[in-house]
Design a protein that fits this description.
single chain; 118 residues; Thrombin, subunit H
């Protein structure tokens, strides 16, 4: 059903964007390790939030792939575990963060806060 723009409600807009945290367009060095593989894929994020990131890959990973990621925030590694939640063929993957190792969650929060207040 086509809904004219002026009839969009706050609840319908919330359904269109399910993100819990603001997303920032930022290139951060990232190393991705697929579950069961010790060889990293090295790249940069195209955007980043407290709950995930997007990376461009010519050969994206399938949705559901479990990963371990090392984000280099101000030359310090922040390690997270997560999974691939979107796959765009010949373009990239959306990754949702699910577990943070050590102080990675606080480190990511400080990094994004600095960008927001920048």
């Amino acid at each position: 059903m086509n809904v004219p723009e002026q009839q969009l409600t706050a609840s319908s807009l919330a359904r269109l964007d399910r993100r819990r945290h603001p997303r920032y367009t930022v290139q951060v060095q990232i190393e991705l390790y697929q579950e069961g593989c010790d060889v990293p894929m090295r790249m940069e994020t195209t955007d980043l939030s407290r709950s995930g990131c997007y990376v461009e890959l010519l050969m994206p990973m399938p949705v559901g792939t479990k990963i371990r990621a090392k984000l280099w925030l101000d030359a310090c590694p922040a390690v997270v575990r997560g999974s691939v939640v979107t796959c765009h063929p010949q373009f990239g993957n959306g990754i949702m963060f699910q577990e943070f190792e050590a102080a990675a969650e606080q480190q990511l929060g400080r990094y994004l806060e600095a960008i927001a207040n920048g």
